Amino acid sequence: MNRYALLPAIALSAVLSCRPDCRAQELPSLGQFLSGLPSQAEPPAPAAPFRLTASYLAPAAALSGEKLFQFLHAATAFAPQGTGIDYLKSKKYMFSVADNAGCGGGPGVTGLYSQICVKGASEHGEDYKEQGDANGDGTVDSDGMNAEHAWPQGFFNKAAPMKSDLHHIFPTFITPNNTRGSVPFGPVARAEYATSAGSRFDGSEFEPADRVKGDVARAILYFVVRYYDRNIRDGMDYRDFWTSRVPMFLEWDRMDPPDAAERRRNDLIERYQGNRNPFVDDASLAGRIGAKVFQSH
User: Would you list the domain boundaries of the chain?
Assistant: First the structure.
């Protein structure tokens, strides 16, 4: 596939009825767009990210419901990556750039479920080792961190481009990652596992800490909008994992809006991957699509 065949300016034309001159006014030029794409060799340095933000959501202002859902499906398209080495490159970029927001005055990575920052600038998760039982879960993660797919890999057979899509992948200590496994996100009343940050597990559902509930919800909302037309429900109860929980994800999105760290992450993932999570850019989008439309996909 031509890696530029999925340019938003082209994809969106299939969704919207637009004035003849609207794309020229509202979307970046081809030269601008191509200048922001990453090279195929190595992840780019964390320079000021190329921004689509000012223009790519402009046509969405008058949309809602299914039309808005389909607009965002097109707007989040990006040139697909493979698995294997491309997934390893994505993880390296996650640890060294996208999620290396720093701690203690230097570089460092914060585990999603534990909200514990480990100092370092490494590309490798095993170098971010837990110092003692810092997250209070009764285990010392001396093997460090790994990559948590908010939408578990098994549900899409580890296929590209879902496996490498950083908009739904987060750094986590190994124990909470393994504890969550592939269970649905949901409220936990009696926990058999918990971190001091408030992430909890009861054997059948995993509840992320309040401070990252919105991050998780926006990752899941993005994933469904981007990949609803792919095989993403292999060997799972789609209603239990997604459909019945849509109102919960919308509530989490409202109660924990995007903060500066999440917006920074969105910028840096765009620089590497070439697309953005629109639910981080505009807090009104999920509500304007509505639960019924999300549940229909």
Answer: 8-295
